[in-house]
Amino acid sequence: MPPQHIGIIMDGNGRWARKRNQVRTQGHLEGLKAAKRLVKAASDMGVSYLTLYAFSTENWKRTQEEVGFIMGLVKRYLIEEMDFYRQNGIRIRHTGDFAGLPVDIGREIRRAMEDTRDFRGLQVILALNYGGRDEIRRAVERLVRAGVSVTEDAIGQHLDNPDIPDPDLIIRTAGELRTSNFLLWEAAYSEYYISDILWPDWTEADLTAAVADFQKRERRYGGVPGGNEP
Ligand code: FPP
Question: Cα(123)–Cα(60) distance, rounded to whole angstroms?
């Protein structure tokens, strides 16, 4: 059985470009191609949910040119891939602060979510203007506004997509050993897989290797090996 939900921190686009004496935006362009490959691979593998960390709440600190380029790629991805989504039954969703997105990007995400809402295959969740702390803050804000007690369950139910199960596996490419504010609440018991391979170089075989590694792990959720028998 493949993991039900995989999250990917797609890192290393800039380093990929620098290694080739190319501009950073070229790395993002290749990064988008990798995202398309890996969405297809996850879909073929029978994964139910794939969350892609495309733009964090901190990424606005990059140059206007780079931010504009990434947003343009996202927009193109949402528009140009519609046939692919239809053929593969792929449903598009979003996590992150929707209100803080540029109006045209927000419009395309809403449209893509609407157009794919009845598709029953892989659900691709685009983390865009996403921060784990920000998501928790927004959930608590909703709770307080609704006058609901702040319990763990209630916070979980007020996150961006409460129906989506927590990620089983979180992959980080390009070798850094940190979470970078990705799915902080949801990743409490996720298994991490860190790869040195830069995101634009990722292939289906790398996803297969990550999943095979995941399948060897024993998940205890804070318990002891083999359960609680004496
Ligand atoms: C991290 O590499 C990558 C990003 C912040 C942008 C990711 C965006 C894409 C791959 C394109 C859009 C994708 C979809 C699915 C619509 P970095 O620039 O931080 O690399 P570096 O650490 O090597 O500089």
Answer: 26
Model confidence pLDDT, tens digit, residues 132-174: 999 999 999 999 999 999 999 999 999 999 999 999 999 999 9
The helix or strand, by DSSP H or E, that contains position 40, with its residue range, turns out to be helix 24-45
Contacts of 84 (CB under 8 A, 6+ apart): 36, 40, 90
Mutate to test the pocket of ligand 1, among 9, 13, 122 (most ligand atoms within 8 A of CB): 13
Q: 132-157 b/e with 16+ CB inside 10 Å = b?
A: bebbbebbeeebeeeeeeeeeeebee
- Give the Cα separation of 11 and 170 in Å (integer): 13
Distance 10 CA to ligand 1 centre (A): 6
Report pTM: 0.96
